[in-house]
Amino acid sequence: MYEDIIYEKKEGVGIITINRPDVLNAFRTKTIDEMTSALLDAAEDGRIGVIVI
Question: What integer pLDDT is reported at residue 26 of this predicted model?
Answer without folding.
Answer: 98
